[in-house]
Amino acid sequence: MIIDTLSNSKLYANAHPLFAKAFDFLQTQPLATMELGRIDIDGEKVYAMIQEPTGRPAATAQLEFHRKYIDLQFVVSGNESMGWAPVCGLGHSLGYNEKKDCGFYTDKAQSWFDVRPGCFTIFFPEDAHAPCCGVGVCRKVVVKILADAE
Fold this sequence. Notes:
mainly beta; three-stranded antiparallel β-sheet; 12 strands; 46% strand
C-alpha cells in the first residue's frame, strides 16, 4: 500500500508498467468537472471511475480486495478515511466474485488514515482496504490498473 500526494507521483511512475498512464490521466484531466462513471484510459488495462460516494462510519466498513487489478484512489475534493490490512493476515472471507474482481472480509482494518484532496492511495492485490469512510460526500477517482501487465 502507498499513500502520497499527486505532486510526488513521479516517484512511483516506474513501479509498474501502467502507473505512468494512470498518473498522466490524473494530472491532465479536469477531474473536478468530469461526469461520473467509467472512462477508458487503455481499454481493460487501465480505466478510471469518477465517483462521489457519501462517507460511512468506519465501524460499518468491510475490507475489500481485488486479485486482477491494482486500485489507485485519488481524492479530488472532500475528505475520505480508508482502512487497510494485509490480505495474508485475514481469515474471514465472504467470498470473491471473479467477474467483478472483488471480494470481502469480515476482519477489521489494521490501520486507518485520512486521505485529503490531492492525495492518492495505491492498493495492490496483497492489500485489503475499506474505502469511502468519513462524513459527507467526497469526489474521487478510482483508477483500475491491471496487476499483471507487461
